[in-house]
Design brief:
By secondary structure, this protein is an alpha/beta fold. The protein has nine helices and twelve strands. It folds into two domains: about 90 residues, Rossmann fold (3-Layer(aba) Sandwich), CATH 3.40.50.2300; about 140 residues, Response regulator (Rossmann fold), CATH 3.40.50. Strand 1, helix 1 and strand 2 form a beta-alpha-beta unit.
Length: about 270
Amino acid sequence: MVLASWVNMGLRLEAKAHPLKPRVACGAEGFATVVANSDEDATLQHQVIISMLEHGVSAILISPSYGDTKTTFDAIRRSHTPTLQVLRTGDRRIEDFPFYSIDYTSGSMLAVDHLLSQGLRDIAFVGGVEGRQITMERMSGYLAGMKRAGLEAPTFFGRNTREFGRDIGLEIVKTHPHIKAAICFNDMVALGMMSAMARSDIKVGQDFFLIGFDDIRESALFYPTLSSVHCDIEGFGQRSAHLLLSWLASGEQPDDPGRAGVHLEIRQSSTVPI
């Protein structure tokens, strides 16, 4: 329930962008938060945002859906509601809608450098929908690192699920046996590939090497433990909320907030035995 004495703050986030931390940060400043997930439906997203604007939200934190979002952002612009885009750019008018995201490029470059340091050369990038912003960002560091090393960069696009990881893992074993390592779009794809390797009697961390992305909790609980690019989503959410709160307090749009840093959690799945 939103108390009348509070001011609303709208959060339009996809499931992966956990809303807890922004809500905590906003609540600490006396803001109630209205959270919505449009499930990648641009039409539903538009309806949600219009409803938020009609209810007079003070600010909007939005991870835009894919699709045509111009009408949505035009409505936000007319309302003069401070709006921060996170993780994806739904509107290129950054002067009106500043953008804050994670340094995915550095993450995949760290992953490539780690695998190369293990003496591996046949490294693939697996998962992600071709052409999507986050896919291309997560893949860009991989492509740059492989190019710098003078190596081919095979890519296998697909759904970001364990099922896809399992299926493509089995296909790689069957039709691309020279590939010995993979950087995956996310940990779910990597865990699916682990299942494929187990089915094929290939030992991850000995015969095949894997790195995921996001560093979900299961990464450290699986066996072998999964190396992963840690993105600190909770810290990212806190920082996003504070950027908006500062904007509201000062009346000044934030300067380019840049990108949140990442680091590589090195575990058993990517470490060549001595």
